[in-house]
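Sequence only, no structure available. Ideas?
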Amino acid sequence: MHYSLGIDAGGTYTDAVIIRNSDREVIDSNKALTTYPDLLKGIENAIDGLDEQYLKDVRLVSVSTTLATNTILEKTGYPVALILIGKHSLPGSTPISELAVVRGGHNLNGTEDERLDTEAIREYVLKVKDRVSAFAVSSYFSVRNPDHELRAKDLITTLSDLPVVCGHELSQDLGAYERGVTAYLNAQLLPVARHFIDVIISDIRKRGIDAKLMMLKCDGSVISIEEALERPIESVFSGPAASLMGASFLSRSDTCAVIDVGGTSTDVAVIHNGFPQLVDTGAMVGGWHTKVKAIRMETSAMGGDSHVWIRNRAINIGPRRVVPLCLAAVKYPGFKELLKAGRTPSRFQLAENIQPTKFFVTTGKQVRGLGEYEREILSIIGEEPVSINDIFWKMGKLISPDHIDSLIQKRLVQAIGFTPTDALHVLGEYTGWDGEASLIGARHLARLTSVDEYELCRNIKKEVAINMALSLMGYMFEGVERQAIEKILRGDYLSQFRVNVPVILLGGPVRAYVEELGRLIDAQILVPEHAEVGNAVGALVGKGIKRVEILVKSFYEKTQRSILVFSPEGRKQFATHQEAIEYATKLGNRLILDYMVDSGIEYDDIDITVRSEDIAMEEEGGTPIETRMVFLGVGVPKA
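Reply:
I predicted one. Tokens follow.
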């Protein structure tokens, strides 16, 4: 009997599942807290909780992770130099510190617009090669002709031993600067991906697991680990992709909407006829517009571990994530006594970081360039929780919440506070940790409102359900202002929203929200078995999917007509449209098959469909002046 192992390293939890290959049933699963900054310990803990008798017979391991996304968001990627070739339209300001623009590039038809300035590239590479870890190159209209990118790559390789990433290798979409950004971010992630994958390989080999290793991409498909090492940028947002694929698999629904309530956020996406809806313009991550094909999703900064705080008697939830009180009571002995004795600030002092339930611990991370005041505060915050009041008495002077906030942003301090997870503990609807600590915290906060602790927690639960419904309907009604949708959800009308596809809920405590969500929207709401580890299931059940676009276009030079084919392999010229189509068809199929086989998928398990769109003019006698061919290959990896 053979098995497959799925792993999802999320923001709060790292999940692991084992699926039996013969009938695709989930037979074992485990959750462990994600460990920062090194994810390895959390992964080890998640796998350690699985039954060892299955592990020795695992033949396929597939992983999804927030590592790439977090690296970009936290600006902790490796230093990279970006070389732009040609007449790029640059934004007014760019955070890229090592950037050079040199002459060269091509035009729309793939002919050279200007000679490549190899001497400028040589001078720049020799100038910066000792202070960067990789180079990224993007040339104007390289999707029509990648010659200048390839020549630049060859030159850089001869001048340094550093990796070089070209824009046309990652995207065939127009937008030279965005392709450059995609290549730049991908180059930043190369060492990060290498380290992460090396530790995964080391762990599974240590356990005696001899298995094929794959990774989930942000479009819901899987790639071989070799390609994941070359294209780590494609794993951004693989977490939401994993939830979508996992929900579809667990609910046996090829068409459904998915609401994934994680620790930090709530993500909504839709799968239709087995394929996720994608963002055509490319994923946005950390303010960067990339050319990475990712699932279309609606995300809100409210999850199970979002901070609940009170100001002016009103409940605020998020956007920051904190350690729930119920979990802190388990991690830190004596925390409940500290919580009981907590001082309630005056109503005028109340702010996000000044709450009777807010505490702080150090993360142990080191950083340079701190001011004297920040260093003084950090010297007081240790491995045991302290409050703002504790810090004040030890320092003997007023504490600025802004300085605490700065230390949290720099990930030097971890906050502890009341959360929606605590509210569910108080209501008895989730019992994963120490519910007494949650109740103590709820009583503290209730004193700052006009309700008791139980009504407070019911109101918090309702707000989370409203946020789930708002995220879902915001996705469904793309382009409609969220304020209008929220007005309807909160209003007392003789009508409500209806969703015509099943709505699948994923996340640890989501069963607690089914009834509340059902009051807000008319839908079939399902919580499948193993919903709490749906992302790890999704990491494992993603299909191998490859899209290839090839453009066949008429081109006139003087009075001579020729046909050009633009593909990932470059530009090729033909005498007739028929010859060009035959070449494009063979090339598209070959590129799909090569990719799939390299990803570990057998020929017999690959299905390829081709969609063609023609633009024809009567003056041309009906022969298309342009044909866009889209090849879609689908296959299922097997152990």
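Residues 1-56 form a domain with the Nucleotidyltransferase; domain 5 fold (CATH 3.30.420.40).
Hope that gets you unstuck.
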